[in-house]
Design a protein that fits this description.
CATH architecture of the largest domain: 3-Layer(aba) Sandwich
Distance between the termini: 28 Å
Radius of gyration: 19 Å
Structural class: alpha/beta
CATH topology of the largest domain: Rossmann fold
Strand content: 5-15%
Strand order of the largest sheet: 7-6-5-8-9
Oligomer: single chain
Number of helices: 11
Helix content: 25-40%
Shape: globular
Bound molecules: phosphoric acid mono(formamide)ester
Length: 324
Amino acid sequence: MRAPDSSIQFDENGHLKHFLTVNGLTRKSLVNILDTAESFINFGQREIKKVPLLRGKTLVNLFFEPSTRTRTTFEIAGKRLSADVINLNASRMSTTKGESILDTVRTLEAMHTDLFIVRDKASGAAHLIAAHLPDHIKVINAGDGRHSHPTQAMLDMFTIRQKKPDFSRLKVAIVGDILHSRVARSQIHALNILGVDEVRVIGPRTLIPTEIEKMGVTTTSDLIGGLEGIDVIIMLRIQHERMDGQLIPSEQEYFQRYGLTENKLQLANEDAIVMHPGPINRGLEIASSVADGSRSVILNQVTNGIAVRMSIMAKLMGGQEKRS
Ligand code: CP
């Protein structure tokens, strides 16, 4: 798979025009997004959970794949910024009648929309849409195929920073179905840009992409040895819907070798945190006692998604974020 061109997300002055991938962004830019999210994090506890930053703007949630967390937190984030938010349901859209995704987008553009949040099963879908829109309309990638899920990576970085502020000291393990994971690819880019000590990718050989070491990670198929010295454990969902053929043995065997249990968690550093982007397959990649345990920050990730998505939307619509 060739990665879509990341330069499309900047205008000729180096301002961030769209948010399509973490790849190509600078450390300063990522830290800036995280710092701005910090200013939005307590909004949920306010009596009036709104600021007028996007008042008068129309945001369209254009999701051609199922989503609970991403779609809902984008909707809440947009509403907290005072935007008008339209949610389109893929099963009711004209694409089911044969209309192309670009014709659907052009139709919505004719209604004077300002921002599209796009999820699609095809890698590069958000890039394609961004390339065909006039300059004043922005696009955020909410997950494209196996390629990229940049806002998920940013909310994950925010969650890590809350618990472990010094990225330079961190060893992070990403465990499970790396092959099909857009989340893992975006996390690897973000962790390396933020300067972590090590990103260790752990999973069965069948689920680790060839040449992933070129992304600046170490790999192992041994979870027991691989958890040693780890500060952050990111568990990934087994993505049955993207698998061609039998890539794991039985689910029982997978859980036995790669499922995170309380016993295996003891092998990591004693203050290691456990993350999962969701949706979770309990008893397949993670035991319920770990997912619901004291080291888990899985629900913090969900909550933080609102502030981080507010930050990214505010920056895009404000037009001030520079490449460096
Ligand atoms: N993490 C994530 O993308 O979850 P959803 O599919 O529920 O949006």
